[in-house]
Write a sequence for this structure.
C-alpha cells in the first residue's frame, strides 16, 4: 500500500506569521481536492473523504491504514456508530456502511448525490440527506426505515435531539423537525437556502445559519428566539463554546461571536470568505479557516498553479484577538477538526490533509 505521508519541511506554499509557531506535524496527499471535514476517532484515527472518490483512514502519525473507493466524489464528513461502523455518502448517490478495516458492509442507493454527512442516532438508525430532496432514515442493516420529502436538496447534515426528534435544513429555505417515525412536527422558514447543519445547546435551543445572511436561534417547538444578521451568506454551522458563546462565520469575511441572547460580543475580520464552521479547542481557542479564490475568479484547470487558490487558518483567543495564523497552498472548505494532544486537522483544496500542532 502506497504511503503519501509528507514531513513538514516539504510542505508547498505554506507560510506562518505567528509569534509562537503552530507546527505542522505532517500532511497526507490524496489524489483529489479535500473538501470533506475529517472525523477523528477515539483511537486517533482520522477519516477523511476526497474528491478522488476515496475515503481515507489515516493513523495518528500520518500513515495510511486503508482507503475505500466509492464511485463518486466525497464531500462530507463520515458518521460513526458506537460499534465503530463508518458511514459515508458520495456523489454516486450511495450511502456506504464500512467495517472498521474499511471493507464494505452494505450500500444504500438514494436518487441523488449525497453531499450531507450522515448522523447516527442512539438506536443505530442512520439519517442522511440527499440532493433528491429527501431525508432518509436507514436501519443499521441497510434497509429503509422511512424517507421525508422536502422541496429542495438536503445538503445539511441532520441532528438528533435529546427527545429523539430529528432536525434538518433544506435548500428549500426551511428547517424541519421530524418525529422518530418520519412524520413532520414543524417547519420554520428562513429567507433563503440552508446548507449546513444546526447545532443544539442544552437540548432546548438550536442555532442554524441561512444563505439569507442570518443565523437563527430556534426553540425545539419551532419558535424563533432571535436572529442575527451578517453582511454575507451564512453557509456554515454555528459552534457553541463551553461558556455558551455562539461562533459563526459569514461570506462577508467576518467571524462573529454572539452572546446566547443574540447580541454581538465581538467580530474578527479575516482575509477571505469563511465558508466553513469554526471549531473551539479544549482551552477555548477558536479556530476558523478561509478560502481565497484565484484572482480572476474564473474556472481554471485542475493542473493550474492558481486553481487551488489560497487558504488560511486563524487561531483566536476568547476575546477575539489573534494568536496566530497559518497560510496553506489551497482554499479550505473543510471545517477544522479538533483532535487530542493539541492537534487540529484540516482538508485543503491542494489535495492535502494537514495535521497541525496548535501549541508548543
Amino acid at each position: 500500500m502506497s504511503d503519501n505521508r509528507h514531513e513538514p519541511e516539504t510542505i508547498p506554499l505554506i507560510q506562518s506569521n505567528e509569534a509562537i509557531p503552530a507546527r505542522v506535524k505532517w500532511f497526507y496527499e490524496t489524489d483529489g481536492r479535500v473538501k470533506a471535514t475529517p472525523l477523528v476517532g477515539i483511537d486517533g484515527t482520522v477519516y477523511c473523504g476526497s474528491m478522488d472518490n476515496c475515503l481515507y483512514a489515516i493513523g495518528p502519525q500520518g500513515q495510511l491504514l486503508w482507503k475505500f473507493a466509492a464511485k463518486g466524489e466525497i464531500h462530507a464528513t463520515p458518521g460513526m456508530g458506537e460499534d465503530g461502523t463508518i458511514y459515508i455518502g458520495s456523489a454516486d448517490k450511495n450511502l456506504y456502511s464500512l467495517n472498521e478495516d474499511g471493507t464494505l458492509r452494505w450500500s444504500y442507493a438514494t436518487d441523488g448525490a449525497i453531499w450531507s454527512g450522515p448522523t447516527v442516532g442512539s438506536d443505530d438508525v442512520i439519517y442522511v440527506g440527499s440532493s433528491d430532496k429527501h431525508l432518509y432514515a436507514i436501519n443499521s442493516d441497510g434497509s429503509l426505515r422511512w424517507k421525508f420529502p422536502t422541496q429542495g436538496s438536503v445538503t445539511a447534515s441532520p441532528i438528533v435531539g435529546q427527545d429523539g426528534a430529528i432536525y434538518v435544513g433544506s435548500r428549500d429555505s426551511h428547517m424541519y423537525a421530524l418525529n422518530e417515525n418520519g412524520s413532520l412536527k414543524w417547519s420554520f422558514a428562513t429567507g433563503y437556502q440552508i446548507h449546513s447543519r444546526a447545532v443544539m445547546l442544552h437540548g432546548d435551543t438550536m442555532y442554524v445559519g441561512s444563505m439569507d445572511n442570518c443565523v437563527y436561534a430556534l426553540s425545539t417547538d419551532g419558535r424563533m428566539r432571535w436572529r442575527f444578521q451578517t453582511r454575507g451568506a451564512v453557509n456554515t454551522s454555528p459552534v457553541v463554546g463551553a461558556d455558551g458563546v455562539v461562533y459563526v462565520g459569514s461570506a462577508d469575511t467576518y467571524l462573529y461571536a454572539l452572546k446566547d441572547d443574540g447580541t454581538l460580543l465581538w467580530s474578527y475580520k479575516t482575509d477571505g470568505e469563511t465558508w466553513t464552521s469554526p471549531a473551539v479547542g479544549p482551552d477555548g481557542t477558536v479556530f476558523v479557516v478561509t478560502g481565497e479564490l484565484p484572482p480572476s475568479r474564473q474556472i481554471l484547470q485542475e493542473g493550474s498553479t492558481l486553481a487551488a487558490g489560497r487558504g488560511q487558518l486563524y487561531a483566536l483567543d476568547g476575546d477575539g484577538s489573534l494568536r496566530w495564523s497559518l497560510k496553506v497552498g489551497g482554499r479550505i472548505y473543510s471545517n477544522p477538526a479538533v483532535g487530542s494532544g493539541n492537534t487540529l486537522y484540516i482538508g485543503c483544496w491542494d489535495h492535502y490533509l494537514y495535521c497541525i500542532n496548535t501549541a508548543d
